[in-house]
TrEMBL record, chain A:
Pathway: Pyrimidine metabolism; UMP biosynthesis via de novo pathway; (S)-dihydroorotate from bicarbonate: step 3/3. Belongs to the metallo-dependent hydrolases superfamily. DHOase family. Class I DHOase subfamily. Binds 2 Zn(2+) ions per subunit. GO terms for cellular component: cytoplasm. GO terms for molecular function: allantoinase activity; dihydroorotase activity; zinc ion binding. Zn(2+) 1 binds at H71, H73, D165, D318. Zn(2+) 2 binds at D165, H192, H245. GO terms for biological process: 'de novo' UMP biosynthetic process; purine nucleobase catabolic process. This is Dihydroorotase. InterPro entries: DHOase, DHOase/Allantoinase_Hydrolase, DHOase_cat, Dihydroorotase_CS, Metal-dep_hydrolase_composite, Metal_Hydrolase. Substrate binds at H73, L74, R75, N105, N291, H322. Its EC number is 3.5.2.3.
Automatic annotation (TrEMBL), chain B:
Residues 2-145 form the Aspartate/ornithine carbamoyltransferase carbamoyl-P binding domain. Residues 152-298 form the Aspartate/ornithine carbamoyltransferase Asp/Orn-binding domain. InterPro entries: Asp/Orn_carbamoyltranf_P-bd (IPR006132), Asp/Orn_carbamoylTrfase (IPR006130), Asp/Orn_carbamoylTrfase_sf (IPR036901), Asp_carbamoyltransf (IPR002082), Asp_carbamoyltransf_Asp/Orn-bd (IPR006131). One of its GO terms (cellular component) is cytosol. This is Aspartate carbamoyltransferase. Heterododecamer (2C3:3R2) of six catalytic PyrB chains organized as two trimers (C3), and six regulatory PyrI chains organized as three dimers (R2). Its EC number is 2.1.3.2.
């Protein structure tokens, strides 16, 4: 990919020869002016009145709508040694994202208008992608009292997604009240489904491998029981429910059943749950320790199928950066979570596209349209069409790369794909027409 | 074999080599001078993150009998309590030139992690609820001494299998050696995937005892009782304790084992624990020989220990 430019004052950009995901079979040109798509195809000539034109040669590349992540941990405020809003947003841009939702389990917790506005401003100032804060459901994530959900919704951050992610809202009555309360401003409760008593001391998926390794088991039913309960609650009160990082075959079945009943439930799956299985824990390397844990091959298969048929609405990274010392320790002492922003699209290609389960239009839906719809974002998850915001990811599906933690833009290198060869590479990411990544490099 | 991290590390031949070596070394303990020079100049570190006076002493004495220099590194009062992680401790030991590290740790997999960070041989002296391979070896040694060949031997392991590293290692090793293992416990104290283990499972001790050559009682960890694994200590004792009546259901030549420390009256009655068919104190004695064998084979060589010793004069 090359870029040529003339003297710029108000840059007009033309993407040459990209194949639009879900568009026709032929490559097309995309004219971008004032941050929006001005024209496409034969009409995409900049015209004689253009002051400056930058051309992005996208021959052989796929144009996807800028990716949207519903589930990112940016760690700021509080754990800036692991990630900051700026470094996380840079990593997101490298992964093809134009928008990420920053989870609320920071320190202090994002449970007030002040904190969500701080995160929102840090994201805006960093400029790599739009950072949309998630608000906590309960004060301090303590599961005792509702946080000021309305104040967060009314703040400049316009919070619409609320989650205590990291911990489950396990009190059924509190969950019911939260679901009801956010109806006033079109919010959604994103539940981290984990029955706490069933997962006390849990270290990995409960099953053959945990029994062999002597690590405390996290049974699938601890996730499934909460999902079933919450689907029924959401149905009862007529609210929107979103299930974070679905990880088991049984969960997929329950969500499919709930949707068939008309329950307004959506769900996400993390890339690592589409690829990795719990037998990796046999190395006792905590880079594979994550919550919910890696499950079995049968679960992986069910999750792929659920994502393909739309039971699971979207892919969300659950990007969870940690400093080295949090992972280079005994398994049971290690932090849970893995980074994922920069590898998500490659993992989805590997597990869903290269296997024939999803085409690129499907990827656009699961990684951009659907998460934007769930998060009620107006400027993202829009089709690549004239008049739409120019949030675009150009992706080289024919490339392959070996994942090197040291080469990641994220501040932390806790990737489970270390040394693995994965397909695809993000060539460029445009945020409202301005490249945040170009020729595979952060701008 | 570079390390002994798990009973799974041992092939049949390797396990037999350890047991045969231990047998030879046991004969030496009858001599007036019990020490011999095989590991002279070698350094063995006992890295104990969990209190265990018996196991630590057993390893310490085993290493000293082989003339190794022994350093006891206990978590209490050490840099560990100041926040030093396992990796830093490992790097310190590495810098000190430890040839062997014996580790006891509350975290499953700690021995595996340590083996990635040090050049010396690592011996797992118990890691969390994972494994305790030298305990399994000393149990197998004891059974071999009392009952002969382990092939076809019917071994019943009773109690808190779920949290027992001893049970886990024993199931694996005894299967490798050809014994038939049956686990007996309330269903709450059996791992969910036990059907994939190379053993049978029963919830009724009375049914199994008549078909048992060796009954191994496990320690019931008092701290588990509050977690509702079983209703009361009394009910547990009634259903799974080994008292005189149950003992009578065993074949007349069957033996009774316990890794200790035991709760008399609940897991096992005093009369059974002190009977001539109980091997509880022998197990402790045999532990020394087995640990000497393990250290010898990992740090000394693969020849017969006794021949080696005799060659050295």
């Amino acid at each position: 990919m090359t870029q040529t430019s003339t003297t710029a004052s108000t840059p007009v950009r033309v993407i040459r020869g990209a194949r639009v995901a879900g568009g026709g079979p032929d490559p097309t040109d995309i004219l971008i002016r004032d941050g929006a798509i001005a024209a496409m195809g034969g009409d995409a000539s900049p015209g004689a009145d253009s002051e400056a034109v930058e051309v992005i040669d996208a021959t052989g590349l796929i144009a996807l709508p800028g990716l949207v992540d519903l589930h990112t941990h940016l760690r700021e405020p509080g754990r800036e040694d692991a990630e900051t809003v700026a470094t996380g947003a840079r990593a997101a841009a490298m992964g093809g994202y134009s928008s990420v939702h920053a989870m609320a389990n920071t320190d202090p917790v994002a449970d007030s208008a002040g904190v969500v506005e701080q995160v929102w401003r840090l994201g805006r100032d960093a400029g790599y992608c739009d950072v949309q804060p998630v608000g906590a459901v309960t004060r301090g994530l303590e599961g005792q009292q509702l946080a000021e959900l309305g104040a967060m919704a009314d703040s400049v951050a316009e919070v619409r997604v609320f989650s205590d992610d990291g911990v489950c809202v396990s009190d059924a009555l509190l969950m019911r009240r939260a679901l009801e309360y956010v109806k006033a401003f079109g919010g959604v409760i994103a539940q981290h489904a984990q029955e706490p008593r069933l997962t006390e001391g849990a270290q990995m998926n409960e099953g053959v491998v945990s029994d062999r390794l002597g690590l405390g088991g996290w049974p699938a039913v601890a996730e499934e029981a909460i999902i079933a309960r919450d689907c029924l609650l959401a149905e009862h009160v007529g609210s929107r429910l979103h299930i974070c990082h679905v990880s088991t075959s049984g969960s997929v079945q329950i969500i499919r059943w709930a949707k068939s009943r008309g329950c307004d439930v959506t769900a996400e799956v993390a890339p690592h749950h589409l690829l990795l299985t719990d037998d990796l824990a046999a190395s006792y390397d905590p880079v594979f320790k994550v919550n919910p844990p890696l499950r079995t091959a049968e679960d992986v298969s069910a999750l792929r199928e659920g994502l393909a048929d739309g039971t699971i609405d979207c892919v969300a990274t659950d990007h969870a950066p940690h400093p080295i010392e949090a992972k280079e320790t005994e398994w049971s002492n290690a932090a849970m979570g893995m980074v994922g922003l920069e590898s998500a699209l490659s993992v989805v290609q590997h597990t869903m596209v290269d296997t024939g389960l999803l085409d690129w239009a499907g990827v656009a839906d699961r990684m951009s349209f659907a998460p934007a719809r769930i998060g009620r974002l107006s400027g993202h998850g829009r089709p690549i069409a004239p008049g739409e915001p120019a949030n675009i990811t150009l992706y080289d599906a024919g490339a392959t790369r070996e994942i090197d933690p040291a080469a990641l833009v994220s501040k932390s290198g806790n990737t489970p794909y270390r040394g693995m060869r994965l397909p695809g590479s993000v060539a460029a990411t445009l945020l409202r027409g301005t490249p945040t990544v170009l020729e595979g490099k952060v701008q | 074999m570079r390390h002994l991290l798990s009973a799974e590390d041992l092939s049949y031949d390797e396990a037999i080599l350890v047991l045969d070596t231990a047998k030879e070394l046991a004969q030496l303990s009858g001599r007036s001078v019990k020490k011999f020079p095989t590991l002279r100049g070698r350094t063995v570190v006992n890295l104990f993150y969990e209190d265990s006076t018996r196991t630590r002493t057993s390893f310490e004495l085993a290493a000293k009998r082989l003339s190794a220099d022994v350093i006891n590194f206990s978590a209490k009062g050490s840099s560990v309590t100041k926040g030093e992680g396992l990796k830093d401790s490992a790097l310190t030991l590495q810098a000190m030139g430890a040839d062997g590290v014996v580790i006891r740790h509350s975290a499953s997999g700690a021995a595996h992690r340590l083996a990635n960070w040090v050049d010396g041989a690592v011996v797992n002296a118990g890691d969390g609820t994972h494994e305790h391979p030298t305990q399994a070896l000393l149990d197998a040694f004891t059974m071999r001494e009392r009952m002969g060949d382990l092939a076809g031997l019917r071994v019943t392991i009773v109690g808190d299998v779920l949290h027992s590293r001893v049970a886990r290692s024993n199931v694996v090793l005894l299967h490798t050696l050809g014994a038939e293992v049956t686990l007996v416990a309330p269903p709450t104290l059996v791992p969910v995937s036990v059907h994939t283990w190379p053993c049978a499972v029963s919830y009724r001790l009375d049914d199994v005892l008549p078909k048992t050559d060796v009954v191994m009682m496990l320690r019931v960890q008092a701290e588990r009782m509050k977690d509702a694994f079983f209703p009361t200590a009394r009910e547990y004792s009634r259903r799974y304790g080994l008292d005189r009546e149950r003992f009578a259901k065993l074949p007349s030549d069957a033996i009774v084992m316990h890794p200790g420390p035991m709760i008399r009256g609940m897991e096992i009655s005093a009369e059974v624990a002190d009977s001539p068919r109980s091997t509880i104190t022998e197990q402790v004695t045999n532990g020394l020989s087995v640990r000497m064998a393990v250290l010898y084979l990992l740090l000394g060589g693969s020849e017969s220990a006794l021949r080696n010793q005799e060659a050295q004069g």
